[in-house]
Amino acid sequence: MSEQLQEKPIKENKMGVMPVKKLIITMSLPMMISMIVQALYNIVDSVFVSRLDADSLAMAALTLAFPIQSLMIAVGSGTGVGINAMLSTSLGEKRYDKSDSAANQGILLGFFSFIVFLLIGIFVVEPFFANRSSDAAVIAFGVPYLKIVTMMSFGLFMQMILERLLQSTGLTFYSMITQTTGAVINIILDPIMIFGYFEFPALGTAGAAYATVIGQSVAACLALIFNLTKNKEIHINIRKIISPDFSTIGRIYGVGLPSILMMSIGSVMSDFMNKILDAFSSTAVAVYGVYFRLQSFFFMPVFGLNNGIIPALAYNYGAKKRERIDEALRFGVILAVCIMTVGTIIFETIPGVLLDLFNAKAQVKAIGIPAMRIIALHFPFAAVAISLGTVFQAFSKSIYSLIISVCRQLVVLIPVAWALAYFTNNVGSVWFSFLVAEGVSCALSIFFFRVVYKQVVEPIRGSGS
Q1: What pLDDT shows up at residue 431?
Q2: H helices within 93-124, ranges in order?
Q3: How far apart are CA 113 and CA 120, in angstroms?
């Protein structure tokens, strides 16, 4: 008998037996909390950086850096989606050799991802900024920041992969601890390293980058410890990590690659949007960056909710329990819409207060207040689209997510934003492109959800609850 089969769980995983609403809450709540903390420390990063200059140039620099940071997150998160789907389905099918292989090969893929971005940091960052801004101050703020977060991204990728292993096996509480610990460390180090408190040299935006990578590295170490000591359903083995299993890698990327491409499209979209807005002013770019950080405070909890639902869906699909799948889907959509509706209300009622967090001057508020009120109208529609996307990821149909993302961001959002900018010559009109794009995304999500549900869920005869 293989080593992987020697320590089988004695009873079925809680994802197959716990009442569904309780399961979703217990699986998702720790991740939602950790995602809120993640969003908070991204906001705190920007709050401190916004105080480095009076003209929002440092914020503009971080906004220009965002597409490459977003690409890093896309690679790590998309790979995690593939690991999550394979691992959870294998556990549901009681194929413990396959779940162990997914875990070990996932760690190997995280290391290869780091190598790619190490090279990007060395060779790409400087020409990237030179091509996107002619302002020497913006380049001076942005290049050191982006070089550090790319060349020291090992902690980011290991954190994301190792936390996915905890989430996929239902140990979301430990995932919350690792993410929260990394976020708290970053928040503490930010002012110290940016402004030079306690005899520490003032490093500016480089200090924000160092605080980020240190927090990520500590979180990765903690996640590794939890997987080794608390996660009894997978077995991490260094020999299996350094021995590529191309069959497993193919299965991981078969699900994960569409997700990587889908999220990478967001990076391309941000880059194009920065160029459209930069034609108006660096202030418009800074406003876009502020909005993106603030909206994450509501989008990130919804993504955390999804991360808790995906393994539950995949497990119960493997276990052929249709009623549990249906209940999880209904409950997830309702929760997501409620969260995003709260976000819309806050953005509509107190946009000026939110902008004040970033030391916003009059010119920033003049652009930012109407922008936030316009864009926030699409939040509830986004909640529906994001929630239905869990089906595509859990049931290895990520190609539909890719199609929706391409249509939303490249086929609709950027062309509409460009057309509005060109024909109106008014930055305020550009924000309406988000509403148009999200309407298309929501309609496509509903259509493809019905297709996948009919193909995958309806044929399931078992209804164990």
Answers
A1: 96
A2: 96-123
A3: 11
Length of the chain: 465
Q: Which residues of the chain have pLDDT under 50?
A: 1-10, 463-465
**Full-prediction pTM beyond 0.85?**
no
d(CA 408, CA 415): 10
Contact 327, 21 (CB under 8 A): yes
Per residue, the 3-state secondary structure of 176-188, as one string, reads HHHHHHHHHHHHH
15 Cβ contact list (under 8 Å, min separation 6): 23, 27, 88, 92, 170, 311, 312, 315, 316
Helices and strands (H and E) in the chain: how many: 19, 0
- Phi then psi for residue 84, to 5 deg, are -55, -50
DSSP state of 233: S
**Rounded distance between C-alpha atoms, residue 292 and residue 283, angstroms:** 14
**How many Cα atoms occupy the beta-carbon half-sphere of 90 within 13 Å?**
26
Three-state secondary structure string covering 235-289: CCCHHHHCCCCHHHHHHHHHHHHHHHHHHHHHHHHHHHHHHHHHCCCHHHHHHHH
CA 352/CA 85 separation, integer angstroms? 42
Q: How far apart are CA 71 and CA 69, in angstroms?
A: 5
Judging by beta carbons within 10 Å of its beta carbon (0-12, 13-18, 19+), is residue 184 exposed, middle or buried?
A: middle
Other beta carbons within 10 angstroms of residue 123's beta carbon come to 10
How far, rounded to the nearest angstrom, does the alpha carbon of residue 209 sit from its chain's CA centroid?
18
Q: What is the pLDDT of residues 239-267, one digit of tens each?
A: 999 999 999 999 999 888 877 887 788 88
pLDDT tens, residue by residue, 304-339? 888 788 888 888 887 788 888 888 888 989 999 999
What token pair was written down for 131?
């091509």
CA–CA separation, 342 and 21 (whole Å): 21
CB 299 within 8 A of CB 163: no
What local confidence, expressed as pLDDT, does residue 16 receive?
A: 66
